[in-house]
Amino acid sequence: MAVAGVRELGGSVTRPKVALALAGGGPEGAIYEIGAVRALEESIEGLDLNDLDIYVGVSAGAFIAACLVNQLTPTQMCRAIVKHEPGEHPFVPETFFTPAIGEFLRRSTDVPRLLLSAAWDYARHPGDRTLLESLTRLSRALPVGVFDNEPIRAYLEKIYHLKNRTNDFRELEHKLIIVAADLESGRSVRFGATGLDHVPISSAVQASTALPGLYPPVEIDGRYYVDGVLLKTLHASVALDAGAELVLCVNPIVPVDTLRAVRAGELPHGKLVQHGLPTVLSQTFRTMIHSRLEVGLAAYASRYRGADVVLIEPERDDYRMFFTNIFSFSARRAVCEHAYQATRHDLLRRRDELEPVLARHGLRLRIDLLKDPTRTLWEGVGLPDPREPHPLVRDLDRVLARLDALTDEIDAERADEESAAPAAG
């Protein structure tokens, strides 16, 4: 007799293949995913996010997936983003925003040559093109990335060489696929797959996070690679193609809808435009990415019959993620806690939908935990709740309260003595 979620093949019992697919979203998305996977691990009985069959990561999700398969637990990652853990290389968001000074300098040296070339071109063909048209070749001097992604690779290389971890796909116990896009062919590339498993994991993540305009393309074996999210948002099909029967997907890249918040007076009208070009571009990018994701997921139902895909993502009116700066411990705490609570709320809201799906794979929602309104992320990872006062503050409050009570008692005794004095006279 087969146990729920377990299959019998040729007389032997095997567990269903479970996979995790993580999308991008930059450093903010990575922190959101940490909070979300912590909620998944805690809320789904039987789920061990360090012991899945297949991990697929793209962009920031590649970083989180590589950490999970390297046996960094969601608890450790939660602690690392808000506290420097002993024996660990500290997480510093500034690593992801190191100015590409070398790229700027290299490109600037091309300006004199390009100016001379433009002038010569105009002189040779004065009637064929205008001077302005000839000067357009100066665009070649623009840097291909504002930020340097080499510090990202170096950071990952360090943490993947700590505590028996590995920077080699071939030494992992479980399958890890990191997706990037080949710049010159426009095709997706699966680092970790046969033929591309010799590439260091840190270099693969660096390539997968190289969003054009922000980071320069990454050269690996003579070819240039950029962010894999340009082709697909999640690449969950990679896991399904590998035989996964349940794919848990986390996608932080959701366009924000501020209409409800504007009507409620929580945000001013035109908030996105007021934040300038980066915010407008982010909203545009998120809208295109998410619409493509919806089309892809709809196709999975007929293409991968018998497999289940569970998508976890923020609500569209969840503007907190969109306007949060993650450069402080407190902000990172807030994003991580918010993702944790939002994921718990989503799991409980979709209970009727998810319970039969998870049961098919031997998993179960822990409804008791999901219904606990007092539960926080930090309670489960062994850190004090930032909303709670420090123990010293609580002790001081008790001392001050006691002093107030004593003062009230003394004042009451004096008042009694003063009122009794005339009667005695």
Structure description:
β1 (7-9) and β2 (12-14) form a beta hairpin. It contains 17 helices and twelve strands. Strands 3, 5, 6, 7, 8, 9, 10 and 11 form an eight-stranded mixed beta sheet that branches. It has a two-stranded antiparallel sheet with strand order 1-2. The longest helix has 34 residues, at 391-424. Residues 1-13 have low confidence and may be disordered. α1 (26-43) crosses α2 (60-69), α1 crosses α13 and α2 runs antiparallel to α8 (201-208). By secondary structure, it is of the alpha/beta class.
Provide tags for this entry.
8-stranded mixed sheet; single chain; alpha/beta; disordered N terminus; 12 strands; two-stranded antiparallel ribbon; 425 residues
Indicate the topology.
Elements: E1 7-9, E2 12-14, E3 18-22, H1 26-43, E4 44-45, E5 54-58, H2 60-69, H3 74-82, H4 101-108, H5 111-124, H6 131-135, H7 150-159, E6 175-182, E7 188-191, H8 201-208, E8 218-220, E9 223-227, H9 236-241, E10 246-250, H10 259-263, H11 271-274, H12 277-303, E11 308-312, H13 329-349, H14 351-359, E12 364-365, H15 367-370, H16 377-381, H17 391-424
Parallel strand pairs: 3-5, 3-10, 5-6, 10-11
Antiparallel strand pairs: 1-2, 4-12, 6-7, 6-9, 8-9
Helix pairs in contact: 1-2, 1-3, 1-13, 2-8, 7-8
